[in-house]
Design goal:
Blueprint: E1 5-11, H1 16-25, E2 29-34, H2 39-44, E3 48-55, E4 60-61, E5 64-65, H3 70-73, E6 79-82, H4 99-113, H5 122-137, E7 141-145, H6 150-163, E8 167-173, H7 181-192, E9 196-201, H8 203-210, H9 216-237, E10 241-245, H10 250-255, E11 280-282, H11 290-299, H12 304-307, H13 327-346, E12 355-359, E13 365-369, E14 372-385, E15 393-394, H14 399-412, E16 416-421
Parallel strand pairs: 1-2, 1-3, 3-6, 7-8, 7-10, 8-9, 10-11, 14-16
Antiparallel strand pairs: 4-5, 12-14, 13-14, 14-15
Helix pairs in contact: 5-6, 5-11, 6-11, 13-14
Bound molecules: xanthosine-5'-monophosphate.
The site of xanthosine-5'-monophosphate has 11 residues, from loops.
């Protein structure tokens, strides 16, 4: 293994992820471990140069104050203790709120006391992961549900580099993807990276299941359940698969809860597979933050349009074609979305606005076209910025850009005669309309 590591032992601080990121920002790899990790376990980890004992408000768990093992305290590892009254030296009472101060504190510890090398780079990360994946998988086979999203695409590229055709990717086109997406997955992975890719055209199957269903949660359930069914069918057709690769990333792990923090949400990428389809998991990105996943994808040669794409919900355009999905309105969503994305790219807004898309409601309005009455759908534009998707603000788009997009949509998208811009922040509107 090529990289030095600083281990953060979680004694209940809510700042651990921030601290791990700050250590990595110094060029030194860092991971967070539970407080009760034993000295033997720590010694078994590669290249550990020092320990950060990070205490905080969640230190008391079920009425008991959690602590690290005595043997860990007494070990030779250099230690930085924060908010830890029993520590031999009191390095800091709390983590500095100011990023510069945090950097100074960490840099003194990581370089001066631990003597760590700033050798955390994406190239080294990839080399290490390739070695680890080969060690884990041996000559066995791995299966991956490749949606074309950032995480699954980066996992695919990494596994192709590590084990080539021992990986089988399954791409399910459920008909709710954006314009050009399934084609791009096939082009990048099958044509360029020579992946073993199974492309499943399940468009009719999904749209038939969704016909007449107007309740948003019901739509989500049908899409999720059908996805698992299709993936399962493909998995059963393949022989001798032992591993399932997943695009789990660090925030998924952190949000699933730790020994000191309650779960924010259950995490599963391909949850719900039947019990007799048990695979061992391969999760090579599980220690990366989102921006690091993107950097990894870039280093692996994936196109920017894949690596820097905006977030896209699992149910895809299905929750943007409001009410019961019809093929013609679904096409109106897909075409208008493509126009919006194209105009945002031309205006230099790609990668600057967090999420932007179009919505087509299930009602029509009167208009006039070529001196005749029209009775067609409106398209709603949405463009928002957010840090964590819990709250969001509306992007103040230039009026001229809104006019240009409107003009293009009413001219180019069949069945559409009006365009509206949604000015509602979250709260009280959610980002999606369903
Ligand atoms: P809301 O609409 O709740 O969206 O403000 C917050 C973020 O979550 C995305 N989103 C979903 N993602 N499955 C997903 O994978 C879903 O069912 C889903 N619903 C919303 C949404 O696009 C936004 O980024």
């Amino acid at each position: 293994m090529k990289q030095d590591m600083i281990v953060i032992l979680d004694l209940g601080s809510t700042e651990n992820a921030r601290v791990a990121r700050a250590v990595r920002a110094l060029g030194v790899y860092s991971e967070i471990y539970p407080h009760d990790t034993s000295l033997d376990q720590l010694k078994a980890l590669p290249n550990v140069k020092g320990l950060i004992l990070s205490g905080g408000e969640n230190r008391i768990v079920d009425g008991v104050e959690v602590d690290v093992d005595k043997a860990v305290y007494e070990s030779d590892f250099p230690k930085l203790t924060v908010n830890h009254p029993k520590a031999p030296s009191q390095d800091a009472a709390v983590w500095p709120e100011n990023d510069e101060e945090l950097k100074k504190l960490l840099s003194g510890f990581v370089f001066d006391r631990c003597g760590a090398q700033a050798n955390w780079s994406m190239k080294n990360f990839i080399d290490d992961q390739v070695e680890l994946i080969r060690r884990q998988v041996g000559d066995k086979k791995v299966l991956l549900a490749l949606s074309g999203g950032v995480d699954s695409s980066v996992v695919a590229a990494l596994l192709i580099r590590a084990i080539g055709n021992q990986l089988t990717c399954v791409h399910v086109n459920h008909g709710l993807l954006r314009k050009g997406e399934p084609e791009q997955v096939v082009q990048v992975f099958r044509d360029e990276l020579k992946a073993n890719l199974i492309y499943v055209d399940a468009v009719d199957r999904f749209l038939d299941k969704l016909a007449g269903v107007s309740d948003p949660e019901q739509k989500r359930k049908i899409i999720g359940a059908e996805f698992i069914r299709v993936f399962e069918e493909e998995a059963r057709k393949l022989d001798g698969i032992d591993f399932l690769a997943q695009g789990t990333i660090y925030p998924d792990i952190i949000e699933s809860g730790t020994k000191t923090a309650k779960a924010v949400k259950a995490h599963h990428n391909v949850g719900g597979l039947p019990d007799d389809l048990k695979f061992e998991l391969v999760e090579p990105l599980k220690m990366l933050f989102k921006d690091e996943v993107r950097a990894c994808g870039k280093e692996l040669g994936l196109p920017d349009s894949m690596v820097y794409r905006q977030p896209f919900p699992g149910p895809g355009l299905g929750v943007r074609c409001l009410g019961a999905i019809t093929r013609d309105r679904l096409e109106a969503v897909r075409e208008s979305d493509a126009i919006l994305r194209e105009e945002f790219a031309k205006a230099g807004l790609e990668g600057k606005v967090w999420q932007y898309f179009t919505i087509v409601p299930d009602f029509r309005s009167v208009g006039v076209r070529d001196n005749a009455r029209s009775f067609e759908w409106p398209v709603i534009l949405r463009a928002v910025n957010t840090i964590d998707a819990m709250t969001a603000s509306v992007e103040p788009l230039e009026f001229a850009l809104l006019q240009k997009i409107t003009q293009r949509i009413v001219n180019e998208v069949p069945g559409v005669n009006r365009v509206l811009y949604d000015l509602t922040p979250k709260p009280c509107g959610t980002i999606e309309w369903e």
